[in-house]
Amino acid sequence: MKALVLKKVGTLELVEDYPDPTPKASEVVVKVKFCGICGSDLEAYQYGMVLMPLVLGHEFSGVIDQVGEKVEGWKQGDRVTAFPGDFCGNCYFCKSGQENICSKILAGLGITVNGAIAEYVKLPAKVLCKLPDSVSFKEGALVEPLSVGYHGVQLSNIRPSDTAVVIGAGTIGLATIQALKLLNVENIYISEPSEFNRSLALQMGARTVGNLARINKIGPDFVFDCAGFPETYKNDLTIVRKGGTVMLLGVHFEPVSIPFLQLIVKEVTLKGSFGYSFKEFKEVLRGLAEKKFQTDLMFKSVKLETAIEGFKELVAPNRQVCKILIEI
Question: Which domains, ranges and CATH numbers included, belong to the chain?
């Protein structure tokens, strides 16, 4: 099969004869239709942090091609997407519906096992979700990033009357704006240096303001940091009102110095948000089926044969694209 393989940091290769996957008893093989390039894929491409060589990609949709002998309820030809991380199903967190913080969650597609930027991908049948007829394959590949924003908003316990600032209008920032709109939060402000990305946020219902810290004269109730830079982490504490909440969705892999005195004196709640639960993943898929998410502004498509150029485009300065979906 054809597969895009990360050989080493900074080196991707389109391999024409990569070995086809074979399912174990409880696994399926999916013929991939679309796979998105995630921020974590870009991190792996630029800095490593995954096993190599490796096929990247975990935001995907496709059609079941092979079914393991112990798999029930699924058949060849079913249209699917999938929760891309592994989870044990038995620990305290899994039993609490928090599969996203199971100790096995990082053993997933495109991290420790081959991902979906390939003609075929193998995965456990337990993580499959059937695509409703009203959800296209392109939309199916967007369930994953939409779920990240959705989880952060659900975790925040924000109310419709609250004011929110979203830092960063990349894919996760745009997903967060849409998740806020689903909860009928009307006062949503965006902070984004890129004119292109900022315009997408405005089209999705966010607003801009000169001084974020002076919203409502005291600052916003919530700040959703979807950028994940040291300077944004620190600025979040300046922006948010006293007694407000900062939600950290954007990931920074190096240690960051935080002004904890400011956090303490302002009585700010600082909360991390990682991934999403399986339940939330299914809720977003249902929301897509009911046309509650706007996806047309979020992406452009490229062919697998030009996927390497897609990676280069996404890491280039002043890029003019939010998300790239690879058509397999």
Answer: 3-142+298-327 (3.90.180.10), 149-272 (3.40.50.720)
| Helix spans in the chain (H) | 39-47, 92-95, 137-140, 143-156, 171-182, 195-203, 230-239, 260-266, 278-289, 307-315
**Residue range 9-21: mean pLDDT, rounded:** 97
Cα-Cα-Cα-Cα torsion 129, 138, 225, 243, nearest 10 degrees, comes to -50
Distance CA 90, CA 103 (A): 11
Rounded to whole angstroms, how far apart are CA atoms 2 and 25? 24
Reply yes or no: is the peptide bond before residue 53 cis, omega within 30 of 0: yes
CA 201 to chain centre: 17
Q: In 3-state terms, what secondary structure has residue 303?
A: strand
Question: Distance between CA 277 and CA 91 in Å, rounded?
Answer: 14
| pLDDT tens column, 150-188 | 999 999 999 999 999 999 999 999 999 999 999 999 999
| Dihedral angle over CA of 178, 267, 236, 206, nearest 10 | 30
What CA–CA distance (Å, rounded) separates 278 from 284?
Answer: 10
**What is the pTM (predicted TM-score) of this model?**
0.96
Structure tokens at 192: 């984004």
In angstroms, what CA-CA distances link 135 with 95, 101, 138, 289? 29, 28, 8, 5
How many Cβ atoms sit within 10 Å of the Cβ of residue 56? Answer: 29
pLDDT of residue 310: 97
